[in-house]
Amino acid sequence: MTAAVTGARPDVPTRLAADDLDLLLLIRHFELALLDMFGRGELHGTTHTCLGQEYVPVALRPLLTDGDHVFSNHRGHGHYLARFADPHGLLAEVMGRQGAVCHGVGGSQHILRDRYLSTGVQGESVPVAAGVALHLNRAEPGHLALVHLGDGTWGEGAVYEGLNMAALWGLPLLLVVEHNGIAQSTPTDAQLAGSIEGRARAFGVDHTLVTATDTALVRAALAPVLRRVREESRPAVVELRTHRVGPHSKGDDSRTPEEIAYAKAHDWYARYAEAYPEQFAAHDERQRAYLAEVVREVAGRPASVWEEADRG
């Protein structure tokens, strides 16, 4: 079954509750802070920001329970922050400072905490999540395993192996596809034959397309999908048409100026600022100042014991 397309982009976004807006802006300013620190040479390695896509994990946040498992990917800072609201621990992880979520050995992409796991290996999480969903179905009914992946990851065979098992065995597995139209530097239409909908349908898996970027509308579209996955214990694919405002990683953006301008024109950040200027300005300034303090405090911490051991 394929659900109806959810909403074309409205002219005026829905006014958000304070906690939703604060979380959106927390993620936005966390990502901007990382890019700024990389630009100044204060961080090493790589990082992949979710600028423009922050509303996806924020929309999902109240629909998930502590008993659900969340599998993230290389572009996962927003997923983590929506799950735990812990910018100090995540930044310490990226910087290799004390108090890091994984003692500084996971860095930007590889995070394990409670029932949350992120990895930079594309497609790997789907069969792993299928195994977790099998356990949940047997031992913890009512919970689900959710995997965040991009449109480019549909080029990985592991995705189809996991979907096949989930469909055959009736597993509570949800794939959330953040379809931003580009796989690192390759446009989706140059590397994906057919459609994500058609590929899900080939396994008899429900597919829902969401074109809205309004947090409230996205949440309303996703709520019944998660309910069906839980109650009926069957997999589903949700495809969200979104826009990557930032580069692939720190500065490698191969898109044309016109494509970048289009993504920015559809960015929730600017649209919400225009629709609700007073509310937005107050919350934006508060989160900007908060992240500046997070950066100052974490940067002042000693290196993690693992980081020190590596240097030694």
- Stated plainly, the CATH topology is called Rossmann fold
Which percent band covers the strand fraction? 5-15%
* Global shape: globular
The CATH superfamily bears the name Thiamin diphosphate (ThDP)-binding fold, Pyr/PP domains
Name its key features.
9 strands; globular; 46% helix; alpha/beta; 7-stranded mixed sheet; two-stranded antiparallel ribbon; 12 helices; 312 residues
Sequence-ordered SSE layout with sheet pairings:
Elements: H1 18-39, H2 55-60, E1 69-72, H3 77-84, H4 87-95, E2 112-113, E3 116-118, H5 125-139, E4 145-150, H6 157-169, E5 173-179, E6 182-183, E7 186-187, H7 196-202, E8 206-210, H8 215-232, E9 236-241, H9 257-265, H10 268-275, H11 277-299, H12 305-311
Parallel strand pairs: 1-3, 1-4, 4-5, 5-9, 8-9
Antiparallel strand pairs: 2-3, 6-7
Helix pairs in contact: 1-3, 1-11, 4-11, 5-6, 10-11
Please summarize what this structure is:
By secondary structure, the protein is of the alpha/beta class.
Plain-language structure description:
The chain has 312 residues and is α/β, with parallel strands linked by helices. The protein has one domain (18-304): Thiamin diphosphate (ThDP)-binding fold, Pyr/PP domains (Rossmann fold). It is built from twelve helices and nine strands. It has helices at 18-39, 55-60, 77-84, 87-95, 125-139, 157-169, 196-202, 215-232, 257-265, 268-275, 277-299, 305-311, and strands spanning 69-72, 112-113, 116-118, 145-150, 173-179, 182-183, 186-187, 206-210, 236-241. The relative contact order is 0.18.
